[in-house]
Amino acid sequence: MFEERRARRHANHAFDHGEDVTRYRMQQKMFAIGDDYWIDDEAGDHVYKVDGKALRLRHTYAIKDMQGRRVATVQGRPMRIKESMEIEDGDGNRIALVKKALVSPVHDRWKVEQPDQPDLTVHGNVVEHEYTLERDGIKVAEVSKKWFRMRDTYGLTIGPGVDHAAVLAAAIAIDSMAHPGD
Asked: Which residues form the signal peptide (predicted)?
């Protein structure tokens, strides 16, 4: 138990100090469904394009790499008691389900269920874009607006050994559900 705690503390410390992390700049979902936007790396270069699909029964976002290949798709799941969005990889296989808790008296609670690995839990203020995603108590990603002066922009830092497309898609899903009218 002590070794496990120390390993978690070391992993979180390394993450907080920028060791082996990748930073992205994302735009808050300020556009209507059907609009596209870019996800940039920390140098400001376009890395992924988010293609919002218009005129569908459910919200859909296709995430494409610079060669135009679909790396992930985020889709709303209509007619559900709990609000959720499904994430598929580029081949159409379900890789995650992002869920918002049905009842949460103090703050929003979110979970990213992944079939082939432990779930991710979301901690922090989702509405203000200040939260972390953790797996078994170890931070794997962090979302924050504090790095940017631009109003509708936030950063996403992803740690090593994590599927970047899946985490980016989870952030898009959370943003879409937390800001449904934006």
From this structure: none
